[in-house]
Design goal:
CATH topology: Rossmann fold
CATH architecture: 3-Layer(aba) Sandwich
Strand content: 5-15%
Bound molecules: thymidine-5'-diphosphate
CATH superfamily: P-loop containing nucleotide triphosphate hydrolases
CATH class: Alpha Beta
Strand order of the largest sheet: 2-3-1-4-5
Largest sheet: 5 strands, parallel
Oligomer: single chain
Number of strands: 5
Distance between the termini: 15 Å
Length: 205
């Protein structure tokens, strides 16, 4: 049986990570790996309900409440989707995870980073990704890609998105082994090739 892997995909809204997850999944399946795709917020079941609230609820949501909802969804995702799949040797590709909370609620909303790290550890029961991709892009380009139809998080403004981007880049400096930054202004094919280069090293480890 292959060793299971937990790989997360991060970046500001409109960075193109979902396209890259699909391409990587196709490559891995063609090479006989078992792949599970999940996302935060909203893997499946209860997670989908939490996603609906987090992205579309139009009443007041306090910053702390928002954080706890993302963390609740994370605990559910880890317990019911990620761990069972990784433990049975599958490769889990997860669209957003702990680094999103550091970048968005920490750098974006201004909540204390140490507290967020602590809460993230509680939510994941200390499970860590084996590898994380950050798709880095200037926020003017990314917000153009997002367009006018914006959800609750996307409509927080360009300054907010800039703080989130800065947060991601700092995270990559803190954990260079786990976190790999990819220039998301390149073409879809070029980005896919870079992702594959990194993945192949891990698969052959
Ligand atoms: P995403 O699934 O990338 O949205 P879309 O499908 O529209 O591309 O992300 C949902 C939003 O939730 C995104 O704006 C980032 C935000 N988010 C946080 O603020 N904190 C978190 O912990 C997570 C997981 C996501």
């Amino acid at each position: 049986m292959n060793r299971g892997l937990f790989i997360t995909f991060e970046g500001v809204d409109g960075c193109g990570k979902s396209t890259q997850i699909e391409l990587l999944s196709k490559y891995l399946k063609e090479n006989n790996f078992e792949v599970v795709i999940t996302r935060e917020p909203g893997g499946k079941g209860l997670g989908e309900k939490l996603r609906e609230i987090l992205l579309n609820y139009d009443g007041e949501v306090s910053d702390r409440c928002e954080s706890f909802l993302f963390l609740a969804d994370r605990a559910q995702n880890i317990d019911t989707i990620v761990n069972p799949a990784v433990n049975s040797g599958k490769i889990v590709l997860c669209d957003r995870h702990t680094d999103s909370t550091v970048a968005y609620q920490g750098y974006g909303r201004g909540l204390d980073i140490d507290t967020i790290n602590h809460l993230n550890n509680l939510a994941t029961n200390n499970k860590k990704p084996d590898l994380t991709f950050i798709f880095d892009i200037d926020t003017e380009t990314s917000m153009k890609r997002v367009g006018k139809n914006q959800d609750r998080m996307e409509s927080a403004g360009i300054e907010f998105q800039n703080r989130v981007r800065k947060g991601y880049l700092e995270l990559a400096q803190i954990e260079p082994e786990r976190v790999k930054v990819i220039d998301a202004t390149k073409t879809i094919e070029e980005i896919h090739e870079e992702v594959l280069e990194i993945i192949k090293k891990i698969l052959h480890n």
